[in-house]
Amino acid sequence: MPNKEFVINELSKKFNCTLSTIQGKKIMYHGNSCGKKIVVCTPYSKVHVIGKGWFDLTTKQVELLDDSEIAVLAVRLGVNKIYYIDFKELRKLMPLEIILKNPNEGEHWKLFVWEDHIQVQGNERKFMVQPKGVH
Known about the structure:
The chain is of the alpha+beta class. The protein contains 3 helices and 12 strands. It has helices at about 5-15, 60-65, 85-90, and strands spanning about 20, 30-35, 35-40, 45, 55-60, 70-75, 80-85, 100, 105-115, 115-120, 125-130, 130-135. The strands form 2 sheets. Strands 1, 2, 3, 4, 6, 7 and 12 form a 7-stranded mixed β-sheet that branches. Strands 5, 8, 9, 10 and 11 form a 5-stranded antiparallel β-sheet that branches.
């Protein structure tokens, strides 16, 4: 599986900044890039038998991403794929009306990751993506 350190290293270079863990958030990082607040979220999913992966984004994680000027979702999928996504664009497919709720995650959105797109449960629209392979 692509590790978080690899992802954070790549993004630190790309945005010319130092990213550090947000206190109490294992997959959330923040920093400052050219005077702009950047927040990164690095969820992981294995690829399931049905050919897709999935992960949840909690309302708290989404608030942190929303509150930044640069928001990157770096989805780590399976053994060697990473999807780098402009979260501000994906966020448009995540209205409050489709929030799910359960005792483990609380209020959250469920996102399905296919080879070439991401889909938010409850929204038919597809967000087209291309993975970056890790060797």
